[in-house]
Every structure is written in structure tokens, then in C-alpha cells.
Amino acid sequence: MSAPNPGSDRPLVVVTGASSGIGAASARALAADGWHPVLGARRVERLQEIADEVGGTALPLDVTDADSVAAFAASVRELVDGGAPLRGLVNNAGGAQGTEKVIEADEDKWRWMWESNVLGTLRVTKALLPLLIDSGDGHVVTITSIAGLEVYDGGSGYTAAKHAEGALHRTLRGELLGEPVRVTEIAPGAVETEFALVRFDGDEARAAKVYEGITPLVADDVAEVVAFAMSRPSHVNLDTIVLKPRDQATGMRFHRR
Ligand code: NAP
């Protein structure tokens, strides 16, 4: 992993799940806006490539593992001690597994979704909030989903996890009132990333069907919104932003050509 060496006075922004999709795109967009991205994920080679490309720092991170989060947070603290404030956190790591109906729900898949989306966001946020507060101008962005705002057939494990992640994130809005930290929830609809491939356990044909006949969002569409929210003046808090492809009305309703 790259040595902790921001090498400039750019503020730090931690992006979890930055090895692909929305996280990688957000690291790129934020670097272009003058941030020093600290990228965390499990696939460290991919992470390092993106960090090298954007002039960021790659650090191994498994948000489901408390020891991994503690080691990650200690490395971020070293960067802060080196002089660059931690002003941003993008809670992005997560995803879905399976589409079983409740009657056939798979508890292991539920656990995976709760560990990565809910407890993962809790662990990282809890570990880094003191540094964000100390920076004097922090911002927590959490990538939830429209699955955090509605439910759909076959989606109970994911919608339950994303509802919980959204509730955790929105709780911060009140708890941090009076602290110099903003909180923004970004809830995308269908984005073409590795998300569907992970959901269907590497089944490419099944994953491709999700986007068949529609023009989905791409990771850059969401990343631009992340960068926009984080570039507003400090007194402006964008609370919740929902973005969907024009071809999508709800989690289940698409216009397919
Ligand atoms: P993706 O391409 O599969 O990216 C997921 C990222 O999360 C990867 O970088 C992965 O990295 C990381 N990750 C997963 N488990 C992790 C763990 N235990 N510890 C650390 N990192 C972990 O999918 P994406 O679409 O960009 O998803 C990003 C976020 O957007 C997720 O929270 C997802 O629920 C949300 N979202 C996606 C969509 C969509 O349609 N794509 C819509 C709404 C919301 P490693 O595997 O290298 O660890």
C-alpha cells in the first residue's frame, strides 16, 4: 500500500469502497476538485492503481472487520498528524446479494448486506467523526439507495439494510447539530457498476439483464453529485439527494425499449 504521504495541503477525504464503481468515480471527481482522496477497499491492487492515478492514498479496508477499520482509522490519523485535515468521508462501501423473497430469505446474504452497508458505515463513521469534527469543517456523505426509501419484491435484505443505513446517517443530522460537520445522503437508482455482478454472484448474463433496454446511470453521474454536494459553501447542507435514470420510476418500474 502507498505510504501515507499526502504531499500537499489538500484536505483529506476518505472514500470507502473506492476500488470500483461509484467509489472509484467519486475519488476521481473529488481529486479533480482539489481533495486528497484516501481510498479504502479490500481489493488493494485495484485501489492502488486508482490512488496512483488521482494522487491519493490507498489503504486496505474491510468495513465488516472491526480490526481492519481500526487500522485504517489509525493510518488516517497519521495523515492528519502530518498536517492535512480530514474534511470529508464518503460512506460508499456496500452492495446487495440475491433477490430471494422473504419466504426463502437467505440469512447469510442478509448478514453480508447488514455487515457491509449498515455496520460498516457505522464503524467507519464512528472511527472518523472525531477527526472530521476537529477539522472545523467536515462533511459525511453516505451513498444509500432508492432501496433506502422504498421496498420492492425480492429486495427485502437489501432494502432493509439500506433503510437502516439511511436511518443511521439521518440520525447524524440532529446529533451533529452545532458541530462543524455537514451530512448528505445520496440515494441513487440503477447505476451500471459491478453492483449487479456482485448481487448475482458473478453471473454476467443475469447482471446484464438489470440494465437491458434502459439507459442506466453511470458511476460518474453519481460522483458528480457527490463532488457538487461537497463543494457547496460550508453553511449549505444538502440533506438528501435522489437521482435515477430517466427510464426508472421506482425500484421495480422501468421503461425498457
Ligand atoms: P460496486 O462497483 O460493486 O462497488 C462496491 C464497492 O464497495 C467496491 O469498491 C467494493 O470493494 C466495496 N466493498 C464491498 N464490500 C466491502 C467491504 N466489506 N469493505 C470495504 N469495501 C467493500 O458497486 P457500486 O454500485 O459502485 O456500489 C457503491 C455503493 O452504491 C453501494 O453502497 C451500493 O449499495 C450503492 N448503490 C448502488 C446502486 C447501483 O445500482 N449500482 C444504486 C444505489 C446505491 P472491494 O470488493 O475491493 O472491497
TrEMBL record:
Presence of keyword Transmembrane helix: no
GO molecular function (one): oxidoreductase activity, acting on the CH-OH group of donors, NAD or NADP as acceptor
Taxonomic superkingdom: Bacteria
InterPro entries: NAD(P)-bd_dom_sf, SDR_fam
Gene3D superfamilies: NAD(P)-binding Rossmann-like Domain
Keywords: Oxidoreductase
Record family assignment: Belongs to the short-chain dehydrogenases/reductases (SDR) family.
UniProt name for this protein: NADP-dependent 3-hydroxy acid dehydrogenase YdfG
Species annotation: Actinomycetospora succinea
